[in-house]
Backbone:
């Protein structure tokens, strides 16, 4: 069976890596990796392939940046001839980025089966580009691999046939589990025992420049109590540059380049708290048991709130400061393990793909432990 993986942006790489490995360990699979080039900077792309030990892409579409329409259209136009030429049996797409929907749409129209890894997550906020990508990709995918039971419930509610949906767990956590021992070698240098790690890149936070300036002001204020380390995404860097240098008055607010995977994992592991608007980091902090304050009004990953360390602080900086105080005072949320976030999600995906290539894949559902219930 020929499986073609499509990756494009930073969070795709950690999700694809374990699936490529799991299929590689089974007989009967040929694999092709296509990088759309949505992310292209060395520290947003190349370094992840090396650290995650993903084979170099067979094809790089090198589409680069652009408006949503242009980026999505460029990926589609460049990807279509690749699918025609390579003739995969299954295209696997990951997460919720523009590369995900673009590749799914091309494939399904060419009559190729599509599998969506990380299906079913919903923020119910249609102003988020990722929510549109999630909704549409799930509607047209043949195999939907979900990370948690809330995602199954979302898909069923949207009328997606239950026999296309497979609760497999979280592939991002597979990568974390595999590489955490290696990340331990990257003990954060030059950092005190107590620091906050910050990432902000959502358009709703950083493209609103006055709001971004207020958030940076709050981060400066937090440095009265702890050092703040902020690896800055390229989108955010552009906006900060528009603000000028006035916000960088404090040496305890450290704005640094985006970090490679292992170093960032080590930074999360050692942090007193993480302040973020990322999706994946809400999951990683839950797994690691590190308090996470999410600067958003909603999350597509409610399991990290219900069972994990995540708190939605909303668009409310007073609330953010109050939550920071709470964490510093040692008031921690109780942590429950999330079922199937165990380092083996990709193996389950490989098993399902293997059985779907022979008979119909549905038989695998019966192998899931009875203890896994839909809890919403
Ligand atoms: C994309 C995803 C988002 C994901 C994020 C992770 C979509 C709709 N959004 O957002 O879900 O959380 O990736 O990072 O797909 N840029 C560079 N170098 C790069 C990549 C981008 O300088 O390697 C700059 C460009 O100016 C670009 C901007 O960052 O215009 C935004 O990049 P883009 O891929 O459009 O979206 P992200 O904000 O990265």
Residues:
């Amino acid at each position: 069976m020929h499986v073609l993986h499509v990756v494009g942006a930073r969070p795709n790489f950690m999700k694809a890596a374990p699936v490529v490995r799991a299929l590689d360990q089974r007989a009967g699979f040929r694999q092709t990796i296509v990088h759309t080039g949505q992310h292209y900077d060395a520290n947003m792309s190349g370094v992840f392939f090396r650290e995650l030990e993903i084979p170099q892409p067979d094809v790089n579409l090198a589409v680069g940046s652009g408006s949503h329409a242009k980026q999505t259209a460029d990926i589609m136009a460049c990807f279509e001839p690749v699918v025609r030429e390579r003739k995969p049996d299954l295209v696997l797409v990951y997460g919720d980025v523009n590369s995900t929907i673009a590749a799914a749409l091309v494939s399904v129209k060419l009559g190729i089966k599509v599998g969506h890894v990380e299906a079913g997550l919903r923020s119910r906020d249609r102003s988020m580009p990722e929510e549109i990508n999630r909704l549409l990709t799930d509607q047209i995918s043949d195999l939907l691999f979900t990370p948690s039971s809330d995602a199954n419930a979302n898909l069923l509610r949207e009328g997606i046939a239950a026999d296309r949906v497979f609760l497999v767990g979280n592939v991002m956590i597979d990568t974390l589990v595999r590489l955490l021992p290696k990340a331990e070698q990257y003990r954060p240098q030059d950092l005190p025992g107590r620091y906050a790690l910050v990432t902000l890149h959502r358009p709703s936070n950083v493209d609103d420049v006055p709001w971004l300036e207020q958030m940076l002001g709050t981060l400066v204020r937090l440095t009265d109590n702890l050092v703040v380390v902020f690896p800055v995404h390229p989108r955010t860097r552009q906006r900060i540059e528009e603000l000028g240098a006035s916000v960088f008055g404090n040496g305890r607010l450290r704005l640094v380049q985006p970090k490679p995977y292992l170093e960032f994992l080590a930074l999360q592991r050692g942090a007193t708290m993480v302040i973020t608007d990322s999706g994946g980091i809400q999951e990683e902090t839950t797994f690691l048991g590190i308090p996470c304050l999410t600067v958003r009004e909603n999350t597509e990953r409610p399991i990290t709130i219900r069972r994990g360390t995540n708190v939605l602080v909303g668009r409310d900086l007073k609330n953010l400061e109050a939550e920071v105080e709470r964490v510093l005072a040692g008031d921690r949320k109780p942590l429950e393990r999330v079922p199937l976030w165990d380092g083996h999600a990709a193996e389950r995906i490989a098993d399902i793909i293997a059985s779907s290539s022979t008979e119909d894949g549905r038989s695998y559902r019966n192998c899931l432990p009875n203890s896994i219930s839909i809890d919403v």
About this structure: The domain at 2-170+341-367 is CATH 3.40.50.2000 (Rossmann fold). The chain has a mean pLDDT of 93. The first helix runs from residue 10 to 24. The chain has 15 helices and 13 strands.
